[in-house]
Write a structure and sequence with these properties.
CATH class of the largest domain: Alpha Beta
Number of strands: 10
Largest sheet: 6 strands, parallel
CATH architecture of the largest domain: 3-Layer(aba) Sandwich
Number of domains: 2
Strand order of the largest sheet: 4-3-1-2-9-10
Order of helices and strands: EHEHEHHEHEHHEHHEHEHEHE
Structural class: alpha/beta
Distance between the termini: 19 Å
Strand content: 15-25%
Oligomer: single chain
Number of helices: 12
Radius of gyration: 18 Å
Length: about 260
């Protein structure tokens, strides 16, 4: 019999841990588990058809281990594609993440804002629609980087972060001087400290707190005898000590 948990957080890798951290902060009374499709990483260069096939299979595999009351798809790339099939397949609520274009436009004084995301998120019509709806009065500097996802993954495994490589990725923002930049991939808040040190005049924002508030909106009743802090990954290249600071207490390899 699967164990019970209140919230399952899913991502392509460790990026969703930034969302899990926000949920833990805003909803400490809930139990949670984390599912990372590290074998499928990166999602940013995968086709829509691949994502629609892969993501529900990984989540279904995790649900054989742990039943949840609510699922958070803590991946911007996947959220633009897989929410409808997930909602049709599963009976519990499914929450996705949306790049924080609306708050960025509202916060900006210069009306020059940035979007730092994966190439897939940058090119989605969904992203263009967000900009058209909420940031029509802004100049939006868009930077797509898959390498930044890899850097975040490497950092979580104890590797040093090259400031020179980061600065090379961030150069379009240094040149255009936006006052607010959206971290439009859940991996990127894991590099917030390093990014902010390089360009301290920019305000860097993400969607973590907004997702946590949406979780609270469902007013979940905490599960009785719930499992707390379990994690499942589809590749065995992490150790528990890499992720234990996010409240995770076990790590199991998920075969999909």
């Amino acid at each position: 019999m699967p164990l019970n948990v209140d919230v399952m957080v899913f991502d392509s890798g460790v990026g969703g841990l930034s969302v899990l951290e926000a949920i833990r902060k805003h909803a400490p009374h809930l139990s949670y588990c984390f599912v990372g499709d590290s074998a499928g990483l990166p999602y940013g260069d995968k086709s829509d058809a691949w994502l629609v096939d892969r993501v529900p299979r990984v989540i279904a595999g995790a649900l054989e281990k742990v039943q949840c009351q609510l699922l958070v798809v803590a991946c911007n790339t996947a959220s633009t594609i897989v929410l409808p099939p997930l909602r049709s397949q599963f009976s519990f609520p499914v929450i996705g993440v949306v790049p924080a274009i609306k708050p960025a436009a509202a916060l900006s004084s210069s009306k020059i804002i940035g979007l730092l995301a994966t190439p897939a998120t940058i090119k989605r019509p969904y992203t263009d629609a967000l900009i058209e709806e909420f940031a029509r009065d802004c100049r939006v500097i868009k930077v797509g980087s898959s390498r930044l996802v890899a850097i975040a993954e490497e950092k979580m495994r104890g590797h040093p972060v090259s400031r020179d490589e980061l600065m090379n990725i961030l150069k379009p923002f240094a040149d255009s001087n936006p006052d607010v930049v959206v971290l439009g991939c859940t991996h990127f808040p894991l590099l917030h400290q390093e990014i902010a040190e390089l360009l301290p005049s920019i305000r860097w924002i993400d969607s973590g707190a907004a997702v946590a508030k949406r979780v609270l909106h469902y007013q979940l009743e905490p599960a009785i005898d719930a499992l707390q802090g379990a994690s499942f990954f589809t590749q065995d290249d992490l150790v528990l000590s890499d992720i234990s600071s996010f409240g995770l207490t076990s790590l199991e390899i998920l075969t999909v």
